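hey so u asked for the seq, here:
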Amino acid sequence: MPADPADVLVLSFEDDGKVPNNPRLPLLLYRGALNPDSVSPEACEALFAANGWSGGWRNGIFARHHYHPDSHEVLGIVSGRATVLFGGARGRAVELGAGDVAVLPAGTGHKREDASSDLLVIGAYPGGQDYQTIFADAAAHDRAVASIARVPVPARDPVFGEDGPLASHWR
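ran it, structure tokens below
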């Protein structure tokens, strides 16, 4: 069972000229949203899919600043730990561990700074959207900003469903 939906860290980031971030939607971080003692990759994928987030992957997080201008993304930490720099070079480093979930609005930069050897992340997208990965680059920035503005807010929070924190923080 997921943790309390009221326990959410809300982070906003400014455009740095290379990573646009999202001017209106914050990153949502749910500490301990998944039970680290019993979560499996399949259980995490099933939870996300039950709430309309799919089309994902199992892996780690790139060690380069990158973002997705055409889709929101959820990252569920199934095992291990990682320090992730969110928001581009001037963003904020956050320690993530097994059970944590980060919900990134389109355009939010993220980069793995450090990780344990057993890190396993499940990523997914609302409605299984296709997504483009852009590495921090001033040349791609302006096109990305226009794309980010067109990404609709999903109907359901990937962990808590229709009445989750996404509904209040992203409306």
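The longest strand covers residues 53-59. The chain has one domain: 8-169.
lmk if thats what u needed
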